[in-house]
Amino acid sequence: MEKIVIYTDGAARGNPGPGGYGAVLMAGKHRRELSEGFRRTTNNRMELLAVIRSLQALKRSDLPIEIHTDSRYVCDAITKGWLQSWQRTNFKGKKNADMWRMLIPYLAQYKPKFFWVKGHNGHPLNERCDQLATEAADKGPFKIDSTFEAEEKSQKESGLFE
Q: Quick check: 78 and 122 in contact, CB under 8 A?
């Protein structure tokens, strides 16, 4: 049976700091790599964006999809039902609500299965995603994670956080 296999990773230097994501998408003999860099973001946002951008890149919805990630945050939220709970509370008190809301329609459309893979453990595809993510975080070109930067600015202006 043909399927689409996706590996993803996110990175941030300083967390928050410059960040990026990397993804490798494969189906049969086809392979595509994705990455983008952002001037200020977090690791978890990049982990989520790697999954979002991977699903956005798909042209077919009739094949089973596997997503392999080294992010427990992403994998557990989906496989352990946390995401549904967060939705019921409208993400009250949860970070990255904008990213989760962006991801939800793709989860409904594609119904991917998620698998956790231990990071930095020598798995070639996970290592390639890490390389793509860290290069994007280090070299850019940098896009703006406008939601994160606006929230960060608002917190600083409130006087509650440095």
A: no
